[in-house]
Design brief:
alpha/beta, 352 residues, 6-stranded parallel sheet, 7-stranded mixed sheet, 24% strand
């Protein structure tokens, strides 16, 4: 649909979108109608979903949180015309930004602009998962992002974009070993191409992993598990992989019940810890030193190290803006599969 752009306010700037990443998990919940905002009222003061008028109704405007735009006009010295910036303003071909209200990250010249879709939000989501693991081990004394994984054995459940980026963060932070577990051979092949070890979730990888990772007598399994797949059976599997008193950091978004989690089994008998790492907040006591800007900086560092492999193996589809509605419908109906899709204003130049 066409939307009229507002005028550029004093201190603002205008962007022409060059790339817009598609979150095939979160965004499809709006297409399928499974997102809780569509059926419940979200009370931010109470932190509760309650019965009442849905917080979001159709038509849903502004979905998408992985945008890169070219500054085409500016009325501020905060950013220059011609700069590329990463932001979260939804799938739009253009946007008028106000630096006092909108967060933006200027992209360095040495970064592939397409990879910039990860800088403002998706990369920080994954980095925040590692920060929660670090806080679990060190509390507010965390110094570096990798303090929770360095020298430790790490399992990542789910080889979607969140799982793959999280695995890359763990490898970049010198984890002793990173194993990615998934049900799809093609996604495991991507994880392997990025440098992780892999296990298929076709039988019971927890048995294989615990035979492989020994800490002591009756002490086997992962030091930390990052659960990155929005399926409750994946959460149950992640708990099974942990060593006694280990921690699972959960980055997944569940829209159904949790009957398969089985909290009376490994969770109870092994004294496990389950922590939700949601991008709305960092661990308690770290907000001042680990804000979103620092998480974006960590993302840029990761992209400089893994960028060529992520571009080759993770970004599987480049789609023109005009084709986006049909593409999302095909994903929702499972007529098409993707790992990371990026909407672009110049598909041919991107090789899509």
């Amino acid at each position: 649909m066409e939307e009229k752009l507002p005028g550029i306010p004093k201190g603002g700037f205008m962007l022409a979108t060059t790339h817009s990443g598609v979150s095939a998990g979160t965004e499809l919940t709006y297409v399928k109608g499974t997102n809780p905002y569509l059926s419940s009222t979200w009370d931010p003061a109470l932190g509760l979903f309650t019965e009442g008028t849905p917080s979001i109704a159709y038509p849903v405007r502004g979905i998408g949180y992985m945008q890169v735009g070219l500054v085409v006009e500016t009325r501020t010295r905060a950013v220059s015309e011609g700069a590329l910036v990463a932001m979260c303003y939804g799938h739009r071909t253009a946007y008028v930004a106000d630096p006092m209200a909108d967060r933006f990250v200027e992209l360095p010249d040495d970064l592939d602009p397409m990879l910039g879709v990860y800088v403002a939000h998706m990369g920080p989501i994954c980095a925040n998962g590692l920060l929660h693991a670090a806080h679990d081990l060190h509390g507010p004394a965390v110094q570096r992002l990798g303090d929770g994984v360095r020298g430790r054995r790490v399992a990542v459940v789910g080889a979607g974009v969140v799982g793959l980026l999280t695995a890359c963060f763990a490898m970049a932070c010198d984890a002793a070993e990173v194993v990615v577990v998934d049900e799809t051979p093609a996604r495991l092949a991507i994880a392997a191409a990025l440098g992780a070890n892999v296990l298929a979730a076709d039988e019971d990888p927890a048995v294989d992993l615990k035979r492989r990772w020994r800490h002591g007598r009756d002490d086997r399994g992962a030091d930390v598990v990052f659960q990155c797949r929005g399926q409750t059976r994946a959460l149950a599997l992640g708990l099974r992989m942990l060593r006694p008193q280990g921690t699972l950091v959960d980055l997944a978004f569940y829209t159904q019940g949790a009957q398969e989690v089985r909290l009376g089994e490994e969770f109870h008998h092994n004294g496990l810890t389950l922590r939700c790492a949601q991008i709305g907040r960092v661990p308690r006591g770290l907000a001042h030193s680990w804000d979103r800007e620092r998480l974006s900086h960590e993302t840029i560092s990761l992209l400089r190290r893994y960028g060529s492999r992520l571009r080759e193996h993770v970004i599987t589809d480049v789609v023109g803006f005009a084709e986006a509605p049909g593409f999302l419908s095909d994903l929702a109906a499972r007529r098409r599969q993707t790992v990371q899709a990026v909407l672009s204003d110049h598909v041919e130049d991107e090789g899509g």
